[in-house]
Amino acid sequence: MTGSFPQSRCRRNRLYPTIRQALMETVITPSNLVLPLFVVPGESVEEPVSSMPGVQRWSVDRLGKPVEEAMEAGVRCFLLFGIPSYKDPDGTSADRLDQPVQRALRLLRDRYPEAYLVGDVCLCEYTSHGHCGIIKEGNIDNDLTLKRLASVALSHAEAGAHAVAPSDMMDGRVSVIRQELDGSGFSDVGVWSYAAKFASAFYGPFRDAAESTPAFGDRRSHQLPVENRLEAIRDALMDQDEGADLLIVKPAGTSLDVVRDLREEARLPLGGYVVSGEHSMLAGAISAGLLREDAYLEYHLCVKRAGCSVIITYGAVDLARRVRRLLGV
Questions:
Q1: I need a surface site. Which of 21, 85, 174, 296 has the fewest CB within 10 A?
Q2: What would the CATH number be for the domain defined by 28-247?
């Protein structure tokens, strides 16, 4: 017995290179990947985000460059975040059709009909205080915020979004947004819900890129406690019941237990968001020679293996190129 096991294992390993693809239980393809894009006011803007290696902010007139690069690599899905031309306490710029996200959606829908466009729906980039909702007496007013979010989602649909992705974590927002879209003739526009979004320490670089750091307090009143797995599952299943089309778990890599549980319980596809801190951590370690380059792919493979068919990641283009080389396509 002791001698036969190592021999069997060795035989398996010798055969593996010749049938590698057939034996791979988990495979990432470019169609699994979503590339986030940061869109800013102005013209001819192509500005690196210092805290996020390889990530830039783009003006609408320059968006063709990252989109065409991504599509050449096989990535067809894009998640748009916007920095507006002005901010105020109620985030009134968020649903205006002359702002960067809405302008970008119109341009991309017209120029790249094969692309799938998703608009991030939240107020944190648009409010002067940096919080995800309307503040009344020092607290977020959930119901007032829902009305604003529904209006923002509708503006994205009118501009050409195929789906909207509410990332605010207000109670009941999926139902309100779904009703607004359906009642306005956009029943074909999907709702990608950030269904299990934790109050994570891994969002810092994103807040630099989106200029959305809270001016006071934090977001623990509405984002999920990192310690609470069951609460995350319960919230996600509520979004499913309210009419979501995709459930997003964020951050993905630190929430694989939640992804696995949701894959067993939910009837919807799952998305995993490999967030800015995860991206910068991996890219920084690879750049410093502390990790091999394939650590980035391994990290994302684990997200897919846990149950996510959609992976939102800032490294989508490089990942797509890498997996195509590995698969010989």
A1: 21
A2: 3.20.20.70
